[in-house]
Write a structure and sequence with these properties.
This protein has 13 helices and nine strands. It is an alpha/beta fold and 285 residues long. Helix 1 crosses helix 3, helix 1 packs parallel to helix 5 and helix 7 crosses helix 8.
Length: 285
């Protein structure tokens, strides 16, 4: 079979499995990415030479990937890679797939801490996306990345090694526990913030991702509240806390920060127009 025919079969299957027109629109791209991955060829080759024969030994693997994508498994898990910031990160089901809206955390962190040097903590680092992006932009920052999941830390460490980023320290444990009595100029976190009963957790889009990294349980704000209340003990005077949260959680997070004594509390919107990140400054400069 030609590349074009194999690709067309994948597109047809994904379009048939699409829940609505918005997901159907991505079928062409997903099928193309998966075919290039399965055949280990550039995507451009699929477009420039659709008449070329496809390796028959690799077609079954491609069709299996198509079926997994049709069942809702994230494209990043199928290929093993995800672009974030300017980096290509390895991902697997032990970590959340890094999302474009989380790049807002990187943007705000760089804006809040313009100094070339600094002590920064990334709580719940997952794949290491935020910590690695910050390290790539501020190579003299001392960044400590923590996670409760040993499997997630293994992914983050592997990403750091592959990217030859050596300025990160990885520690296992829940939130502030691995930090001891250390203080930082900036603390960032993208914690779990989806309530356990939220129907979104049952959707195909989230069903394959680690529940521990998505939901803190019945109280969607539980982890956010824990971080806000614990952060003053680990921030230097004038240090900042920066949090990602749900699209409707901005007011509640701002209230928590104010109650904890933070100043200059404000939220920022993602490209979709949703309040996605909230920050506050600790103490006097």
């Amino acid at each position: 079979m030609s590349l074009g025919r194999v690709l067309a079969a994948g597109v047809q299957r994904l379009r048939a499995a699409a829940a609505d027109s918005s997901t159907a629109a991505g079928a062409d791209l997903d099928a193309e990415v998966l075919l290039a991955h399965a055949l280990a060829i550039p995507r451009a080759q699929l477009r420039s030479h659709p008449e070329a024969p496809a390796d028959p030994q690799r077609i079954p693997h491609y069709l299996a990937l198509i079926e997994r994508r049709a069942a809702g498994e994230p494209l990043a898990y199928l290929t093993g890679w995800r672009e974030f910031w300017s980096l290509t990160l390895a991902v697997n089901p032990a970590v959340l797939v890094p999302r474009p809206e989380t790049e807002l955390l990187v943007e705000r962190a760089l804006a809040l801490r313009a100094a070339a040097e600094g002590r920064v903590a990334d709580l719940g680092t997952g794949s290491g996306a935020v910590a690695l992006a910050l390290a790539s932009e501020r190579p003299r920052w001392q960044i400590t990345a923590t996670d409760l999941s040993g499997a997630a830390l293994a992914v983050a460490r592997a990403n750091a090694a592959r990217l030859a980023i050596t300025t990160l320290t990885f520690r296992a444990g829940s939130w502030f526990v691995p930090l001891g009595a250390e203080a930082f100029d900036l603390i960032v976190s993208n914690p779990p913030y989806v309530a356990a009963e939220d129907p979104a957790l049952a959707s195909a889009a989230l069903a394959h991702e680690p529940r521990l990294a998505l939901s803190p349980g019945a109280d969607a704000l539980s982890c956010l509240r824990t971080i806000v209340r614990g952060a003053p003990h680990h921030l230097a005077a004038g240090g900042w806390l920066l949090l990602e949260h749900g699209a409707l959680q901005g007011p509640a997070v701002r209230d928590e920060l104010v109650l904890a004594g933070f100043r200059y509390v404000r939220s920022h919107r993602d490209l979709g127009g949703h309040e996605r990140a909230t920050e506050g400054q600790h103490g006097q400069i």
